[in-house]
Amino acid sequence: MYPVASDAVKNGGDCMSTTALTDDRGELNFSSFSLYRNAIYGVAAIWIVLFHGIILPKLEIDPSLSFFAETCQLGNVSVDIFLLLSGIGLYFAYSKKPKLGSFYYKRVVRVYLPYLLIAMPFFVYVCFFLQNNNIGLFFQALFTVNYWTGQRGPIEFWYVSAILVFYLIYPLIYKFIFYKDKNALLRTAILVTLSIALCFILFFTAPKVFSFFDKVLPRFTVFIIGCYMGRPVKQKKKFSVLVLIASVIVVAAAYPLYARGGLSGIWRRYYGSLTGIALTFMLAQMFVVLSKIKLDKFFAFFGAFSLEIYIATIGARTMFYISPFYGGNIFVRYLQISIVAMLAAYLISLLEKPLIKLLMKPVQKK
């Protein structure tokens, strides 16, 4: 998902420099996507943690907290926010025309290192203690392919599996969209149309195949859109206030259409992606205002290790669910466990910094 340290969150290695954007605050400007990128990631990371708690089995919600529960349900679209910003960030990295090997190496290191450091103990416990030396699953999970082979539960870090594949094909997307620097919007529309068409064809003709990959395939569309949006973000293009108004309408409608189940299947999935895009516009502009009281710094703190938060809380959530302590006030217990997991994620992110610096030496420009 994201860059290293302050202006490149380790979560995906797609570097978006913020130093060149200090001359403006990003009001109705695509530059706000980069200027407040870590803050947006922070909101999305915390929101996805709440979402994973609200969907736990046997969880009972007091009717008076229904709006809170629905807001947590919307946290699922945080993944779409991650993918949109990842596509944008990759434009910054790839438009510098890096060597292909160097480009891939940086992306893999920044995703795979936190994945190994945080998830390895979880893999060992599940594969060698819970499943009696399931070496096959261990190596599939180790190399992030168990999602694609169907060996998912109780290990399913599907986002890591998906983002590595998206990074792998990004250079092809870039070269197609920005071929000869002409008709980029038209070419993006073609890719988006093909992506949506493929999903609908699978949904109606091969529903089992679609359901197998339903978390990934529709979200490839929002990643493509992010790949295109990298250019206006880098060029600090303005956008109309109508875009922001439309975003507010989309998010408001997401409560009945998405959180309350007004839509289902592929329709719900795509409305979730649309909501994720709308929320990114809203959050970017919200932080233009909140930066006056430095609140963006608070969320940016969490955004700087958002991949680690995702991996650590997913593992902790799974361990909680299969433990004898699962029960009682499930959501409160889950939050307590998640806070501990987020603290562990932060400490591991500190450990990663010197390791990443060391691993990046072979590809640093001299």
Please tell me the total number of domains: 1
Inertia-based shape:
globular
Major beta sheet summary? none
Radius of gyration: 20 Å
Fraction of residues in helix = 55-70%
- Give the low-confidence spans: 1-13, 17-23
Task: Give the distance, in angstroms, between the N- and C-terminal Cα atoms.
Answer: 26 Å
User: Structural class of the secondary elements?
Assistant: mainly alpha
Summarize the structure.
The chain contains 16 helices and no strands.
Topology:
Blueprint: H1 31-35, H2 37-54, H3 66-73, H4 78-94, H5 100-130, H6 135-142, H7 146-149, H8 158-177, H9 184-205, H10 207-212, H11 219-234, H12 241-259, H13 265-290, H14 295-303, H15 306-321, H16 330-360
Helix pairs in contact: 2-3, 2-4, 2-14, 2-15, 2-16, 4-8, 4-11, 4-13, 5-6, 5-8, 5-15, 5-16, 8-11, 9-11, 12-13, 15-16
Descriptive report:
This protein is mostly helical and 366 residues long. It is globular. The longest helix has 31 residues, at 100-130. It is 70% helix and 0% strand. Residues 1-13 and 17-23 have low confidence and may be disordered. The protein is built from 16 helices and no strands. The chain has one domain (19-363). The two termini are 26 Å apart.
Supply the key terms.
366 residues; mainly alpha; disordered N terminus
